[in-house]
Amino acid sequence: MTDPQSLYTTVRTEAATVLVGNEQVLEELTVSLLTGGHILLEGVPGVAKTTIADVFANTLGLDFQRIQMTPDLMPVDITGTKIYRETTGEFETKRGPVFANLVLVDEINRATPKTQSALLEAMQEEQVTIEGETYPLPDPFMVVATMNPIDMEGTFALPEAQRDRFQLKLTVDLPERDLEETLLERFDETPGLRPDQVQQAVSLDDIAEARTVVENVYVDESIRNYILDIVQATRDSADTAHGASPRASIHLLFASKARAAIKGREYVIPDDPKALAESVLAHRLVLSTDAELGSVDPESVVEGAVRAVTPPTYDTVRSSATVSDGGELSNDADDVERTDE
């Protein structure tokens, strides 16, 4: 059976033939893939948001479709419609680009709220209804949407219900100078380097097997309570009008299990939800008026919530876990030391 750690290592190695850096983004994309989640990618133009999604799909052998969102785009342009064929006298279903394994929704906030809402059923139910008929989407199915944080003219804010459908929000930052130097060298040597030159390194069966491994990762009751305490802290914060939802709690639980599996563990430790809390929770928060006027950002609210909650000790988690090979640590020894400090 394919284990998540091997799958991620394979994806990262193959993606590195085109991408420079972005390991953290690739890791959390893998976390979301293995838990049936969706990703919101934010970054300024030119930091390879679209390329990351395309490369990720190619390394996994996934059917990839890109939807460029614009204000005049209609819901049927995404989901599909029925077309009358005079030659047969019947209506034929024309499926939209949402019928793919990985759908890149480029600049999602440039579409109207009505068009954005066309993705809600697909993201939640993994199905699409076209004129009263329901069609299942491919398995796996994943939406990766991009946003530009600096160009707000002609955009529409994502409604809370839409933001809540995204398991993780990731930020693609400008690269450090040494990484950008490596990038220049690579494109100087291979000017025509493109995402489609990445080879498929993982099969759909590998993904299904890795998902099964993630589902079986052990979560101690103390970890579940730790997740609930962090989420509750976002609700109790004076800086939020609305904190994270129960769906956020579930997404943080699933993502923590996937991170543990990618790190080579069969059980979750406190640093798993701690490391993912900002990515899972920040984009779901609705700040209070005073917080917005005071330039408070959601990330600082989540950071404060994590600091306010005391995590369970590693010994507590380990003593309760039923883990093969005695539950010995391998890759996350540093995480455990930080947790117990």
TrEMBL record:
One Pfam family cited in the UniProt record for this chain: AAA_3
Compositional bias per record (Acidic residues), positions renumbered to this chain: 331-341
Residue stretches making up the AAA+ ATPase domain: 35-176
Matches recorded under InterPro entries: AAA+_ATPase, ATPase_AAA-3, CbbQ/NirQ/NorQ/GpvN, ChlI/MoxR_AAA_lid, P-loop_NTPase
Chain intervals for the UniProt region annotation (Disordered): 316-341
Name of the protein this chain belongs to: MoxR family ATPase
